[in-house]
Write a structure and sequence with these properties.
2 domains, alpha+beta, 2 helices, single chain, Lipocalin, eight-stranded antiparallel beta barrel, 8 strands
Length: 133
């Protein structure tokens, strides 16, 4: 009976709008907040552990890359749009700044990222998993 009442009270156009709204809410539910860890293959072919700490506030992403010695390097220009995540990390290599651009997709408990140094011809891929997931 409640379904029939709903059909009678809400027009087909409004039902479609409600359905699309609920779909958009569930798609926007991907939350990158937390600690993500995984590994990547370096230029020398060796595996390197990599971790990030993220906090999302709507479309804004903040956080840091966690270094192997426990140091944290702040991310900048972080954005979250649906399942897409983008941010930048600026490292100090031999006294020069080196910007690394990250772009990825969050699905379930996995974050697939591509990292590319500004001006470099290729990107390095990595798969991260959320801690405690």
């Amino acid at each position: 009976m409640p379904c029939a009442l709903f059909r009678n009270l809400v027009s087909p156009g409004r039902r479609l709008g409600l359905a699309l709204g609920f779909t958009a809410l569930s798609a926007a539910g991907a939350d990158p907040s937390g600690i993500w860890s995984g590994s990547m293959t370096g230029r020398d072919g060796n595996q390197r552990e990599v971790s990030f700490r993220f906090a999302a506030d709507g479309p804004r992403l903040t956080g840091s890359m966690l270094g192997p010695t426990g140091n944290e390097i702040e991310i900048s220009d972080g954005k979250v749009q649906g399942e897409e995540v983008t941010f930048k990390v600026v490292l100090n290599w031999n006294g020069r700044p080196a910007a690394l651009l990250y772009r990825g997709r969050l699905t379930g408990g996995e974050l697939r990222l591509k990292m590319q140094r500004v001006g470099a011809p290729r990107a390095i891929e990595m798969l991260l998993k959320k801690a405690g997931a």
